[in-house]
Write a structure and sequence with these properties.
Layout: H1 2-11, H2 18-39, H3 44-48, H4 55-75, H5 79-84, H6 86-98, E1 106-109, E2 112-118, E3 121-123, H7 125-141, H8 151-170, H9 174-190, H10 195-204, H11 206-213, H12 216-226, H13 237-249, H14 274-307, H15 311-335, H16 353-370, H17 375-401
Antiparallel strand pairs: 1-2, 2-3
Helix pairs in contact: 1-17, 2-4, 2-14, 4-16, 6-7, 7-8, 7-9, 7-15, 7-16, 8-9, 9-15, 13-14, 14-15, 15-16
Length: 402
């Protein structure tokens, strides 16, 4: 009996990082407010589709509720269980990624097939792929056979990455292709992989990236990024409207709900370009607060990773933190004209279910890691349960024999 109590106490851990959870909740509330602001104006076109001022807001609240369920589910999973699930989750995400090409299941929008139909909405498998890849890499890099000085250890995850990227490019989804590459190389770098391996592959990838960039529609994005005012009503329209939106806000903004660019001028004002709306209505102060929240989230995630007990949970925390932070950084860079336009939403802020569900699930895992449960403690807990089951079986047999 005493040993059982000791096992229970030994497997218990501290509390989760409430500060991280509070930061995420602030971003969710901020995002919901800005989504309502950007979609509350009913235009003649939306009125024809029976879209009211609360249409997108209600759908976003439903997605937030589902995201909370996803976060609770991932929070309830032990790191040791998550480690075992890494390969099945990777395979599952690859299968879902392939379903976008199946008729009546895959959904085409804007000339790309990136979604699968899940009644009553759609889901973008590429978001799940990022999460699955982070978990897989954390497991792979924590294996005893992983060697940072071995080129073989370096190549294996690149093969997995390339398989997913081939499907991404078929959709096409260049943004997810580059995001997955950055995540993979960043995690390999964090693990201590030799720089010459990483640099050699990056150099070899330059001709491939160049060829991909020369695709007509991608080339138009690059040229419009370099000089959006050259074609302000064509390829440069979105970036020009983004600049106007951000510049109109000034220091304090026009006021909540007072944006002019959301009146059918700025495309995707409630999705990929929601940061522009923040800058226009709340000004430099509001935009700075939003950026500070993401920096805060990044710092808390790195702190959790630094305190993690075990290689797997440490690498996992680093990967999840990078997955969220890098996407936010790219989004900020796109709307401010620092990089060409890509279809990447702002985490926790943009309207869109797939990214929100996956990012909230990632926070659930981070909260679980922040409790301080080590892989060793989880293994001891499993062995303690096995011993208790064995003892019960012995006692039941003795009782049956009597």
């Amino acid at each position: 009996m005493n040993s059982d109590v000791h096992d229970i106490k030994g497997s218990s851990a501290g509390t989760y990082d409430r500060v991280l959870l509070f930061g995420m909740m602030l971003l969710l509330a901020f995002g919901a407010l800005m989504i309502y602001s950007s979609t509350s104006v009913v235009t003649p076109l939306s009125a024809k589709k029976n879209i009211t001022e609360f249409y997108y807001f209600k759908r976003h609240l439903l997605t937030m509720a589902l995201g909370c369920l996803a976060m609770l589910c991932t929070y309830s999973i032990k790191p040791s269980t998550l480690k075992k699930m890494s390969i099945p989750l990777l395979v599952c995400s690859f299968v879902l990624l392939g379903l976008v090409f199946v008729p009546h299941i895959g959904v085409t929008a804007g000339g790309a097939r990136r979604w699968i139909r899940l009644w009553p909405t759609t889901f973008q498998p590429s978001e799940l792929v990022k999460l699955a890849m982070v978990i897989f890499l954390a497991r792979y890099m924590s294996m005893p056979g992983y060697r940072t000085e071995s080129f073989g250890s370096f190549v294996k995850p690149l093969i997995v990455m390339a398989a997913f990227q081939a499907v991404f490019l078929k959709q096409p989804d260049f943004g997810s292709t580059m995001s997955l590459a950055f995540l993979t190389f960043a995690m390999l770098f964090i693990s201590g992989m030799r720089l010459r391996y990483i640099a050699s592959v990056l150099v070899l990838a330059i001709p491939v990236v160049y060829k991909l960039a020369m695709e007509p529609y991608r080339l138009r994005r690059i040229t419009s990024f370099l000089d959006p005012w050259k074609d302000p009503l064509g390829s440069g329209f979105q970036l020009v409207q983004s600049f106007i939106s951000l510049g109109s806000g000034g220091l304090t903004g026009l006021g909540l709900g007072e944006s002019k660019q959301k009146l059918s001028f700025l495309p995707a004002s409630h999705t990929d370009f929601i940061f522009c709306l923040v800058g226009e209505e709340l000004g430099l102060i509001g935009a700075s607060v939003l950026i500070a929240l993401f920096v805060f989230l990044f710092v808390r995630g790195i702190r959790i990773a630094g305190r993690a007990k075990g290689k797997f949970v440490g690498y996992l925390a680093y990967g999840l933190t990078l997955m969220i932070s890098v996407q936010a950084l790219i989004n900020f860079a796109v709307v401010t004209g620092l990089v060409p336009t890509k279809g990447l939403p702002l985490p926790f802020m943009s309207y869109g279910g797939s990214a929100l569900l996956v990012n909230m699930a990632a926070v659930g895992i981070l909260l679980k890691i922040s409790k301080g449960e080590s892989e060793k403690a989880a293994a001891e807990d499993d062995s303690a349960k096995a011993r208790r089951i064995a003892r019960r079986n012995i006692y039941s047999r003795k009782g049956y024999g009597q």
